[in-house]
Amino acid sequence: MAAQSTIPVVVNGACGKMGREVIKAVTAAEDMTLVAAIDKNPAVLGEDIGEIAGCGPVEIPVTPDLEAALVQAQSEGLAVMIDFTHPDTIYNSVRAAIAYGVRPVVGTTGLTADQIKELAEFAEKASIGCLIIPNFSIGVVLMQQAAQQAAQYFNHVEIIELHHNQKADAPSGTAIQTAQMLSTPDKAFNPAQVEESEKMTGARGSTTDDGIRIHSVRLPGLIAHQEVLFGAPGQLYTLRHDTSDRACYMPGVLLAVRRVMPLKSLIYGLDKIL
Ligand SMILES: NC(=O)C1=CN([C@@H]2O[C@H](COP(=O)(O)OP(=O)(O)OC[C@H]3O[C@@H](n4cnc5c(N)ncnc54)[C@H](OP(=O)(O)O)[C@@H]3O)[C@@H](O)[C@H]2O)C=CC1
Ligand SMILES: O=C(O)C1=N[C@H](C(=O)O)C[C@H](O)C1
């Protein structure tokens, strides 16, 4: 069989904040062909997704029918579904893509650890690559790696994530992944110094099994930001990442589309494919 010239791509959640950036990036990528743009907003169904994304007409109408798009993509070669939708629907969409032989590249956050495990088993059985990437920006990977290093030397750490107030899930996928990356067997963070009592529920944030605190802020005016604060007697070490434009995620998204093609199982995190 002749090698395919471009990667057929389905974008799920195409009309959303991330979806519109992805449409611009995919249509500009020479090695990818946009096959379908899926969204559920009735007001935009049938409209040209290029017009909605602001990159000019691309003659792909917005449709709500993910399954038909997966069938079409699969018929055009080894295909990829990029998903930026909603925590409530992402599990079923990933299962559907794998069932149709289409490789999922998942930016949508909010999957539970159990769901990720099940999807990994499903992808493994189907021998289909799948990437779940809580954050596609290189700056966040570097912040997480610096935090991982610092966690070897500090016993006290709290994460503050700050996002726009349209965000459905809390804490952010990035904060959860960051906390996971700091975990090592046998280490409990933030050993209590006094007996604390919360006078308002949630004042001290949520706590991971190994004691890392995560605090979530939601405000208009924010995009996506995270601080990792390490404390020790006499010093504070603060790492911070700020997103000022969602374009920052696109190099990571396009890299993930290329990297998922030869995979036969699920990988979690951009750091694993750089
Ligand atoms: N991994 C990463 O680097 C990043 C991840 N994200 C994550 O991506 C997700 C989307 O974020 P964002 O773009 O800001 O959100 P938006 O709400 O702006 O966009 C989501 C889009 O998906 C549509 N949608 C929701 N459910 C479905 C469905 N079942 N089928 C088809 N379309 C659907 C929405 O339609 P409607 O408006 O009608 O609901 C909307 O158009 C979130 O989970 C967010 O946390 C965001 C930024 C970066
Ligand atoms: O909803 C967002 O905006 C973002 N979601 C991701 C997350 O939950 O970590 C990635 C980034 O923080 C932007």
From TrEMBL:
Source organism superkingdom: Bacteria
Question: Could you give one GO CC term from the UniProt record?
Answer: cytosol
Biochemical pathway: Amino-acid biosynthesis; L-lysine biosynthesis via DAP pathway; (S)-tetrahydrodipicolinate from L-aspartate: step 4/4
- Biological-process GO terms, alphabetical: diaminopimelate biosynthetic process; lysine biosynthetic process via diaminopimelate
**Its Gene Ontology molecular function terms?**
4-hydroxy-tetrahydrodipicolinate reductase; NAD binding; NADP binding; oxidoreductase activity, acting on CH or CH2 groups, NAD or NADP as acceptor
Ranges where the Dihydrodipicolinate reductase C-terminal domain occurs = 139-274
Which EC number(s) does UniProt give? 1.17.1.8
Q: Which UniProt keywords apply?
A: Amino-acid biosynthesis, Cytoplasm, Diaminopimelate biosynthesis, Lysine biosynthesis, NAD, NADP, Oxidoreductase
Q: Where in the cell is it found?
A: Cytoplasm
At which positions is NAD(+) bound? 13-18, 107-109
**Residues holding (S)-2,3,4,5-tetrahydrodipicolinate:** 164, 173-174
Give all residue intervals belonging to the Dihydrodipicolinate reductase N-terminal domain: 7-136
Q: Which reaction does it catalyse?
A: (S)-2,3,4,5-tetrahydrodipicolinate + NADP(+) + H2O = (2S,4S)-4-hydroxy-2,3,4,5-tetrahydrodipicolinate + NADPH + H(+); (S)-2,3,4,5-tetrahydrodipicolinate + NAD(+) + H2O = (2S,4S)-4-hydroxy-2,3,4,5-tetrahydrodipicolinate + NADH + H(+)
Q: Where is the active site?
A: 163, 167
Q: What EC class does the entry list?
A: oxidoreductase
Which residues are the signal sequence here?
A: none
Family assignment?
Answer: Belongs to the DapB family.
Oligomer and partners:
Homotetramer.
- Please give the HAMAP family that the UniProt record associates with this protein: DapB
Q: What is this protein called?
A: 4-hydroxy-tetrahydrodipicolinate reductase
Task: Specify the species.
Answer: Leptolyngbya iicbica LK
> Which gene carries the instructions for this protein?
dapB
